[in-house]
Every structure is written in C-alpha cells, then in structure tokens.
Amino acid sequence: MPSSFPSFLPQPLLPSLLQLRLPLTMLGYDSEESFLWPALATLLVTIVVGTGIQKLVYNLYFHPLSKYPGPKLAACSNVPFSFWFLGGRQPYKLLELHGKYGHVVRVAPNELSFNSAQSFRDIYGFRPGHKTFIKSEFYDGGSFASRGVHSIVSERDPVAHGQMRRLLAHAFSNSSLKEQEELVAKSVDRFIKLVKAKTDGGQIFDIAKGFERMAFDIIGDLGFGQTFDALDTDEDHPWIGTMLGALTKGALADSFKRFPAVARLLGVVLRRQIALLVEDTRRNEDMAIELVSKRIAQSSNRKDFMTRILEHRKQDRVQVSDLQIAAHASDMVLAGSETTSTALSCATYHLLTSRSVMAKLQSEVRGAFSSYEAISDASTSELPYLQAVCQEAMRVYAPLPLGLPRVVPEGGDVVDGCFLPQGIIVSTNPVAASLDPANFGDPFAFKPERWLDTALVPGVDQLDASQPFILGARGCLGKSLAWTEMRTTLAKLVWAFDLELADVELDWHGQSRMYTLWSKPPLKVRAKLAQP
C-alpha cells in the first residue's frame, strides 16, 4: 500500500490526541511534563489493526455473502469497487469477473453483481407477493437535494416515487407522443440540415456531438417549451458541460459514500473543486427553475411535457410544487438526451464499420421512402431491420451502463435462485449481461439479425438479457420518445447521406469510459449526399 494512501482514522480524532495531556501523577508518575506516547501509539495501532483484522476475517469467512465467488480483496474492502468505478472501465471489469465466476459475483463486502435475464426480473421487475427492492444510498445527494427536493430519479421511497410517476406518465403516453412528434421532427430536421452543410468540401465533423446537441434541443423543447439552440453553435451549451461533468463526479461521490473518513479528508483538500461543482450544479438548478417558471407563466396549450404535467396537477389536484416540477424537468434533460444520443452514436459507428449491415439498412430505408418528407415515427416503426439495428446498438453498448443498485427488502428475497438476507446491495450490470456468451452467441459481433424472428436461434440469444430501458415500476418513462428519436433520426440520416468513418483506427468501445453514463470518444465522419 502506498505511503500516501489516506488514513481511514476519523479526522477529528487526530487533533484531540495531539492535544491530550494526562495528569500522570494520578498514575504514579512524578511529572506531567511528558506523555507516554509510545504506549499510547502502541495501544492505538493495536486497536486499529485489531479491528481491521477482525473485520477482514468476518467479511471473508462469516459474512452472509462469504459463500459467493469473487475477488478476495473485494470481499474484504470497497477499495477495488471504487478503483474500477473511478477508472472508467467498471462495466468491462464486471464482464470479466462474471466470465470468471459465473452469474453472481461478490464485488464489495455487502454487494453482489448479477448478469442474467432472471436477475433483471427479480431485482427490478414487479413480482406479486414480493416486496420492492428500493434504491440504495447511491441515489442520495443528487441535483436539488440541497433544496430538500427529490426527483423522479433520486426518490427512493416506492410510494412517493409512484406518485411522481403518475404525475409524469401523462406527458410520456403514446397519445402525447403523437402530439409531440412535430416538435421532435423539428430538431431532427435541423440536425439533418447541419449534416448537409458539412457535405461541402468533404468536411470532417464529430457526429456524436451533433446527436448530443440534437437530443438536448429536443428535450429542452418538450420539457421547457423552448430549445437550447444547441444545434446552432459549435460551443456546448453550459448545461451540457456541467451536466456531463457532474456525472463524471458521480463515481467520486460513490467512493466518498463508501469511505466517509477519506471523504472528510478530501472534503478539506479538494474544497475548492467541490465548491465549484456545487456552484455549477446550483447554476443548472437555477436555470431549470427559471425555465419552468417562465413556461408555467405562459399558460400555453403547447403540446409538450409541461402542458400534460400541469393539466394533471390541476385536474387531479396533485400536490406538487413548481420547484419539484423543475427537479423532474432537470432529470428529463439528462435522461432524455445523453442516453438517446449514445445509442445513435453507437449505431452509427457500427453501421460505418460493417458494410453489409449498412447496405441492408440503406436498402430497407431507401426502398421504403420515395421522399424525405415521408419519413415519420409511424412509417419507421414498420421497418424491422431499422428497429433491429437500434436494438443491437443498445445491446452492444448499453446507453445506461451502470448496474442500478437496489437493497434486498426486509425478510430477504431470492435473486436468480440465490436467497439473500435483507440489506444486501444487488444490481444487474447491463454490459455484463448483454455481452456475456452465456446470454448471447458471438456477443461482441454487431448482428441486428438476432432481433428478427426469422433469424432468432432459440437457446443461443436470450434477448431479455438486454434491458436498455430497465424493467418494472422504475423503468424508463421516455422509452417511446427514445424510439421515436432513434428511428426517425437514423432513417433520415441513412436516406439522405452516404457516411464514411474518418478515423479508421477508432476503437469505440476501447476508448469509451463510464462514469455513471458513458464518456464517449469523438466520432469523426464525412458525409456526402446520397445518390438516387
């Protein structure tokens, strides 16, 4: 262990020990001028080391999870888990561990990782007669937490979460989505115009950044009644940078929670950086509050999320404040933009590195539409290969790559055949599940055909081991919106352009890092107008 490794001793204890002076005459000594530091140090080290050894032995041999396989160091300490998370390659490390140990792996003293289709159902799905696996402390301290407000993402109480979900469900219903399609198409078309402008002179541009800004504008239009004009500039909107930066800090925040003593020390050492992060987060919250207040004041019947939310609040007399609506809207910006743009980026990368897949998609899309204007959500939903491409993109590169941690409820419960006592932290990692050879044949190959009924080989591909939108009552509300964005954007892009990967050496998966969500490498491409 490096000498610079921070002490786990609670920091407030150190000054008090240094200042301690005992009346040694009471102990038979002639003077109070000195203190038996060697004796005290020996006692202190003995207590600390003894306690540590006792905990280590308990975790290894007597803990309820001691029978489950996994790295021995991970069974003893949270250090390996935090190291994997902070290193940005945690999903692939978990994939490696599941390949070595099987469907269940002990990844921390009180935590298990699963990677089977059954574990998705057991942890996140609804099971009659079973209690809900609530969210873990990982979700505490998110945006708006300092204002005493929980959002649809951070709320851990199942009853309160259910009330929030009912409030927001109207905004994401299929009927609402049909009304919102025009707003979605407006930003998609602006993105297509941006790509068209890049065809002059064979310009190289980062299409992943374009997807990100398009999705950001769409969710701004639907959530706040106005786009962020992200597509109109080469600079990131301040909210995008701060939002993604905060996600990167999510790995650090998780480590802080696992090591409170270290957190107190780093809270002092990194107080300036932490203050800047808090300031940026507060600025985004203020922006969300301002935009929501402005949208509510408009009293508009515009077919967006806010209209539906406000209608439901009024008609059903739901007690929800403007501040809480702002918290929900802030979550929508993140959940509704970054994940969708990630799926589009991955799909584009694999289309450009697999000529046969691209040729099949071009044939389907260009054969289905005689004009650009004919491409819509309804018409693209009739294209099976397009949908299969989207499904496969979300399988090989899960838009939400983090295993969402849940707590085994009171009385214990069974996960994938394993009975677990209450209080154990469990999760199913999407990457470890969708790339495991036990779940998919040739898992690293991009094969959209596996999602087509005519090509499915029973027993080889367990399609329900890929769950990009998660299951159950806490599944993604914006699933239908995400499908609309993915299908219409890819269809219009493939219909209008022939794309070429500018960086043929790009290793998309190898250069990606995960800090709650993916930190993606640039996806540099050239585009030219498709020839009739």
From TrEMBL:
Provide any one GO MF term from the record: iron ion binding
**SUPFAM superfamilies linked to this entry:** Cytochrome P450
**Cited Pfam families:** p450
Binding residues for heme, per the UniProt record? 476
Annotated keywords: Heme, Iron, Metal-binding
Q: Which cofactor does it need?
A: heme
- Which PANTHER family is this protein grouped with? CYTOCHROME P450, P450, PUTATIVE (EUROFUNG)-RELATED
> What protein does this entry describe?
Cytochrome P450
- Say which species the protein is native to: Cercophora scortea
